[in-house]
Amino acid sequence: MLLCGRKHRNLYPFIPEIMKKKLFLLTTACVCMLTVVAQRADYRIIPLPKEVQLDSTQVFTLRSGMHVSYDANDMEVTRVAQFLQQWVAEQTGQELVLASSDDKAPVRLVLTPPANSKKKGKKGQQPAEPSPQQQEAYTIVVADGGVLLQAQKPVGLFRAAQTLRKSLPFISKSSNANPPSAVELPYVRISDQPRFAYRGVLLDCGRHFFSVDFIKQYLDVMALHGCNQFHWHLTEDQGWRFEVKAMPQLALKGSIRKQTVIGPGNSGIYDGQPYGGYYTQDECRELVRYAAERYINIVPEIDLPGHMQSALHVYPELGCTGGPYPVRTYWGVSREVLCGGNPETLGFLSTVLGELCDVFPSKFIHIGGDECPKDRWRECPKCQAKIQELGLKDDGKHSAENQLQTYINHEVETFLKSRGRDLIGWDEILAGGLTEGAVVMSWRGTKGGVEAAKQHHRVIMSPNVYSYIDHPQLKDLGKQPRTTDSYIVSASKIYSFEPVLPDELTPEEQTNILGVQTNLWTEHVAFPEHAFYQLLPRLGAMSEVQWCLPEQKDFEDFSRRLPRLKKLYDLLGVPYCRQLE
Ligand code: ACM
Ligand code: ZN
To answer: Can you tell me the distance from the alpha carbon of 407 to that of 430, in angstroms, rounded to the nearest whole number?
Structure first.
């Protein structure tokens, strides 16, 4: 629900590229009209599969009218077959036919039980559950019989279908060839599975609101890169975006700021235009369903106890000073946070998180925990009384106020556990001591992640210098829209990231690293085109960090594979940065 907004500013120096694209299409169309030849698949995609055994001396030819078989009793497998049919048609013009029960179909989607499921376990023991990564594993075999996609689970078939899609040639609809050129698939055996179980992408919808339709496109692009966790940053000082039915004013009033500061940094100049928008619970459920169909889990974040000024605007009694608190109109860290000593704070949080758990089935719930200045708590009689009551004392490592934050985290974790959920927090949650099951998202470098992994906590690595794609991607700032520009996060920088830090963590500690996430903060990203420009092609680089083994990674090779992925971006109509650094 978009309540109000600002006009599209002409911020995009990449727009002239669109003209270049038209010219390109025109020239390729002319060439294709003269020579209609079969076009070949290329399995060197992004992210690169683990094993590709190629026999390029033989090909299977894929044509319109060929059957695709699958188990029609399985809704998920049926959906994967439909996706595959759609992608093949969009990209190559070949219209495959869904024929669920045709055993002899040239394209087959087959679920196979795991190898160990037939083995008898020791007496009374179930065979070991496959790891999350094994559950996503798949094989593709192209041979004389056709194309066989095999996996233990539908998610594996989905990954296989994405790999096949990305391998296909692009047959331009403007080529005038009717029927379009056939597609040759060189014989191959591909075996693949991701390196990490958690492969995340964050979108900050607090600083700027993005429509449900845009988020669907964002999820499609994530799925194209094999990502499986959409971290949805839903609340900020600058806007509350999640409908809470028990407190309707929270979204109605808390989502709207009076105006927005102009330009990167806090210039002191404002646009004078009210800005707002929030997601109804129905819209959130619609996105949960849409994401799940693409094997993406939505990890919702309610950032607490800091970054809460929009909530304080509606409920000033939850702040230490009693307010008033405007929804913040500029960027940076606010000193106005939830009062840690007011018993109503925990009641407020359980109402919000209770409804959040009703809407989002995610095992992980993100509670933020970052950037919560303690200035107000140090002076607040209620906070200090709570510190006394709990007997919290500065122990030289953890201040009493940081321990008060840990107390809140503990209460929240107990609540989330009662709903069967696990808590994720930014690495500041280490400051007062971690609660029992907390998962740490390491953003201020990797130090917090290393510390948490050594304490046997699960960790998601998202260090800003490798993962913050609100920062520029090119050295020449004049060649890209202006954003937060204190450092450059180029694609090659992202690509160079090794998340398990073998020099700092033992092999056992390394197993605590669940995965990696890239974050699109949106202080300076207000429009969909700009969001995609920040995301792409850097997500391609991040996807190889998330999916590939270190020994597979080679940036030069990645850059040679990228032009084909860019053709898919063109086909999907998503803008991206044309240059790679
Ligand atoms: C953060 O960037 N404050 C998590
Ligand atoms: Zn207080």
So the answer is: 12
